[in-house]
Amino acid sequence: MILHVLIGIQFFLAGYGAIGTGSPDESFSLHIMNGRVIAVVALLGILFAALARSGGKLVGLAAGVLGLVVLQSLIALVSVAGTTPGQIIFGFHAINALMIMGLAEASGRLAKQLLEDRKPAETTAAPATA
């Protein structure tokens, strides 16, 4: 849930930075900082999934989220502003963000399902009296 909130904020900060009046470094500084927070939360997701012994699928999904977050930074670094190839490459930044959202959603649903599966079965028998 925290990751979803941070991703929503990230989209807002991207729009905020896009209409900023300063240099791109200044306009997108909050977007960049929040991206780092997202990376830390994604890393914690891997750690918590592993510590909870939730299985390889959830750990893999959590690792996939972190991998896509790292890819976001690489896309931003590789794209050269003001050039057509750079703009095309940077266009994948938005597509990758949607992929991050989807993978975060899938891992959240799986985590919720695993928690539901771990709940003890409710018994219908009356408790014994002393």
Biggest sheet architecture: none
Fraction of residues in H or I helices? over 70%
N-to-C CA distance = 44 Å
Number of strands: 0
* Number of discrete helical segments: 5
- In percent, how much strand structure appears in the residues? under 5%
What Rg do the Cα atoms give?
A: 20 Å
What is the H/E order? HHHHH
Structural class designation: mainly alpha
Bulk shape = elongated
Mean pLDDT value:
85
Low-confidence stretches: none
Question: Can you give me a brief rundown of this structure?
Answer:
The chain has 130 residues and is mainly alpha-helical. It has helices at residues 2-18, 24-27, 29-51, 56-78, 84-118. The chain is built from 5 helices and no strands.
